[in-house]
Amino acid sequence: ALLNEGEPGYFLVRVSERIFGYVLSYRSSEGIKHLLIDASENCYMLLGDQIRFSSLSELVEYHKVNVSYVS
User: Fold this and answer.
1) Residue 56's pLDDT band (cuts 50, 70, 90)
2) In DSSP terms, which residues pair with 42 in a beta bridge?
3) CATH code of the domain in which 56 resides
4) Residue 35: which residues within 8 A CB-CB, separation 6 or more?
5) 6 lies in a domain?
């Protein structure tokens, strides 16, 4: 509901119910997408990605600038 009326680029991060981690939900020009964030091994990374971050905020800041989401 929060992203339904937003413009492309809007996003939110929430706790995942499926894995030990979070979900990054974002609005693209094609609609709303959801990416899982693995929070195991004392780091944060998008599932399917190799870049590891020491904090959730570092991951979010990096992907705000480098918009190359894993599908």
Assistant:
1) very high
2) none
3) 3.30.505.10
4) 23, 24, 25, 26, 46, 47, 69, 70
5) no
Question: Can you tell me the mean pLDDT for 42-66?
Answer: 92
Residue 71 lies in a domain: no
Residue 5's pLDDT is 76
Question: What tokens appear for 16 in the block?
Answer: 């995942």
What span, in angstroms and rounded, lies between the C-alpha atoms of 19 and 22? 8
Contact 20, 39 (CB under 8 A): yes
Structure tokens at 57: 């905020």
E-strand stretches of the chain: 11-15, 21-28, 31-38, 45-46
